[in-house]
Amino acid sequence: MNDKRFYPIGTPGEPWGPAEVAAWRARVTRQRSYADDVLRAIEPLRQAFDVAEYGALDNDDGHFPLLAIRSRPWNDALPILVVTGGVHGYETSGVLGALQFVAEHGLAQAGRANLLVVPCVSPWSYERVQRWNRDAQDPNRNFRDGSPVPEAAALVALLAPLRGRVLMHIDLHETTDSDESEFRPALAARDGEAFVPDTVPDGFYLVDDVDRPQPAFQRAVIDAVARVTHIAPADANGQIIGTPLQSPGVISFAVAKRHLCAAITGARFSTTTEVYPDSPRTAPQACVLAQVTAVRAAISHALAHA
């Protein structure tokens, strides 16, 4: 049954225009600092890694350099491993997990593979703990050539020269209770649709590409993460977010066709993580550890089967 509640911006049944987007942006406030949380954490990594600015966001809210952390030296003869986080700014464990992985385990691949990590794709959204960018666009439906979303377009341009050469790409996400209280109601209002309530999966799960499945790879990651946090069970219909399970804790989705981040490199092994930090069965730091564990397991499986 459609929920009759409506988001406090716009007119029911009518998609947003520029005025509604501006009203939404005015409603969104800065809650944390990209410079303090991300840029400062990257500084000590410069001792062992190359850090490159692959773009920047400049608007009335400030200047946000977009940074990528790369292996030093880079060896074109070695496999390439890509880790991305912070595609949605509210997905904190993805950002912190990517940074923690580099700091604690980034050198483990030296001489075996090239590592490229983009810890925070959407810094404006990170500061405001939001899913969308400042123009109410979702980057994770827009990773494609000619993308109208600057965060997505910059990452596509960074990774374009590597397409077809990437062995593994893991994209770190999380889902919070705010999906149901804020983000999905806002999405319905933005698109002029009715909001239909759903549930947030309680636990960690993965999203495979239905057109390029790698079930053994997904299982290796799930099995590793299950040692540090719980895996999301299927709902009463045997699904997670309306999608049948490929295997416990894994669903398959049209990742490439929907222009999601994990597909843009064309990696042989790719996945998207989802973790639920609001669960009473876990804690924020456990979710960060789950992301780090997922990255390590993904790399281990990919290199073992390269």
Number of helices in the DSSP assignment? 8
Tell me the radius of gyration. Answer: 19 Å
Mean pLDDT comes to: 96
Which blocks of ≥5 consecutive residues have pLDDT under 50? Answer: none
C-alpha geometry: globular
Count of extended strands: 10
Strand order of the largest sheet: 1-2-4-3-5-10-6-9-8-7
Secondary structural class: alpha/beta
Helix proportion range: 25-40%
Q: What is the CA-CA span between the terminal residues?
A: 48 Å
The largest pleated sheet is described as: 10 strands, mixed
Which strand-content bin applies to the residues? 15-25%
SSE pattern: HHEEEHEHHEHEHEEEEH
Short description:
The protein is of the alpha/beta class and 306 residues long. It has helices spanning 18-27, 34-42, 92-105, 123-128, 150-159, 178-190, 215-225, 284-304; strands at residues 50-59, 62-70, 80-85, 114-118, 166-172, 205-209, 239-240, 243-247, 250-253, 269-274.
Structural features, described:
With 306 residues, this protein is α/β, with parallel strands linked by helices. It has helices spanning 18-27, 34-42, 92-105, 123-128, 150-159, 178-190, 215-225, 284-304; strands at residues 50-59, 62-70, 80-85, 114-118, 166-172, 205-209, 239-240, 243-247, 250-253, 269-274. The protein has a ten-stranded mixed beta sheet with strand order 1-2-4-3-5-10-6-9-8-7, sandwiched between helices. Helix 3 packs across helix 8 and helix 7 packs antiparallel against helix 8.
